Amino acid sequence: MGLVLPLLVFLGVTFLAPLATMLLRSVHDPVVADALPATLAALREWEGEGLPPEAVYEAAARELGSAREARTLGQVAGRVNRLQSGLRSVLTRTARDLDDVAGGPWREAMAGMDSAWVDPGTWHAIRAAGERFTARHYLNAVDMRRLPDGSVAPQPEERRIYLPLLWRTLLVSLAITVFCLILGYPIAHLIAHAPPRRGNLLLALVLVPFWTSLLVRTTSWIVLLQTQGVINDILVAIGLVGDDGRLSMVYNMTGTLVAMTHVLLPFMVLPLYSVMRSIPPLHMRAAASMGATPAQAFRRVYWPQTLPGVGAGSLLVFILAIGYYITPALVGGSSGQLISNMVAYHMQTSLNWGLAAALGALLLVGVLVLYLLYDRLVGVERMSLG
Amino acid sequence: MTGLRIGRFAHLAFCALVFIFLVAPIIVIVPLSFNAEPYFTFTEGMLRLDPAAWSLRWYREIIENEVWTRSLANSLVIGVSATVLATALGTLAALGLSSPAMPARRFITGLLISPMVTPVIISAAGMFFFYTNVGLAQTHLGLILAHATLGMPFVVITVVATLTGFDRNLTRAAASLGAGPVRIFRTVQLPLIAPGVISGALFAFATSFDEVVVVLFMGGLEQRTIPRQMWAGIREQISPAILAVATFLVVFALALLLTVEWLRRRASA
User: Fold this and answer.
1) How many contacts does A have with B, using Cβ atoms within 8 A?
2) Phi-psi region of A157 (alpha: psi -120 to 50; beta: other; left: phi over 0)
3) A372 contacts in B (CB within 8 Å)?
4) What ipTM, to 2 d.p.?
5) Which domain holds residue A350?
6) pLDDT tens digits, residue range A39-83?
7) Four-CA torsion B80, B84, B90, B94, nearest 10 degrees
8) What residue of A is the nearest CA neighbor of B252?
9) Which of B131, B234, B253 is facing A211, going by the closest CB pair?
10) A159-200, pLDDT tens digit by residue?
11) How many domains would you assign to chain B?
């Protein structure tokens, strides 16, 4: 036990603490609550009907000004804006204009700056953004929203993004798993039952891509598949397609499917191979001697014995596929993106880290369930590395 | 009988196609990296084997370009440090996991291997949040720790696998002859599990040497590695210089593969 402890501590700091931070991010967002404490406290007195009392306006006017001085106004406005678009500029503009206002009544002053201040929806948005702990990122991640009266409802049809994407990710992963099985099963069989020398050579052909850099393999597929690429050139040269009819096979879903199948195929072949190698050839001969046709012998004797390998390989490929990021990002174009790419988008481009964390958490739970299943069925310590 | 023969021929033909699918994409970039023109396909001159159509210009470009040499240096520094860390901690843990007195073995093994199956985008996002909080983002140290975490499961798996065939009587014999735990490890266990340890280390190094997502999230300009540079090249403007780098990486992968296979054979012999 003492020997494992250093690594457990290391893992706790470098891996588990980061995951915990991400999970916390997905429900915890103190920015607005810290910037507008008095406004939010005053808003708590408001029933949500009509306009809030003057006290709310007074606190808001004061705190918008101090947020502007503390340079947190941009973050605050951005968060409110996510709940009701258009409010970003209202908040920043109002905070600037309020500099010139010496005293109240604040409601009239702010209403004069923007009519949004006499719209109860604005105050609902500020109140919601001010929740220190919130489920809204998760609601967002499953295409739901909270209505002003507090009830939860699905987003309107045209604004549903994440559930369709999640669904697409599952379908794509399933398709890739099936492709890998169809391509991998015959070659695993060939390698497992070849004479040792040839078997080793063929196994090396599976291991070369396994060891080759992922970026290299992805680059190769771009080179092969792009419109001015090698495959299109060959097709044009042999006259199968015209020069103006070049196929678009990359920067779309086709690119994602082809490149990911290539990348994940070794993870299917290796477990299949190790199971098949342990099946004595005698079994098939025995079946044949008792009158089974090759098809029957395969279906009733060989295939059932390979099921553990089929399960292990398929589960592993599926687990790796649903979280894949690099390949879809490079060859997927806009139609070949998966859920991981959306996490990256919210991390790097929209900077909506709470939503990125919530999407990541959902993906993490999915992978965790599959991983436990894998452990139950195969045992993680038997994960094959070629 | 002819039906059987047709079936067998179809099987072999299908397998041949799958092997081509596996290997051809990797092979095709090697000749293309010697293209004299900035194209990604075979020019007519190349197909006629005209020497003028082939050139080393892209290799010259990457060797002379400071951006690439600096990213190679970064990749090596981060990769080697992460490998040393992952190998030391992973080997110790594997020894602990293989001891019969290990409590909660299954759970802990699962935990130690989890970084390997966690989608790297999630690890990278979490690490970005956490390492930024503790001031390790955009530092070499942060990337070394992150890469060591991602590479460590491979060490645990390979060393545990080597240890399953390990005869515990050997350590008992050494102990009965008066050797302390450190001496037993150094003179009895380590030489026997060395192939597993080295394989694991190579896996860990390959992981770091090919890792781009964590670098993308956490690395600054000072931490640009080879994969990070390739990523930029593929996304922005893909030039055949990328293919020259890719060829170098293919050769590197072959060397790793041959070493690991050689070690495996030595271990099982």
Assistant:
1) 263
2) alpha
3) 110
4) 0.88
5) 162-382
6) 999 988 888 788 888 889 889 988 998 898 889 999 999 999 988
7) 120
8) A212
9) B253
10) 888 999 999 999 999 999 999 999 999 999 999 999 988 998
11) 1
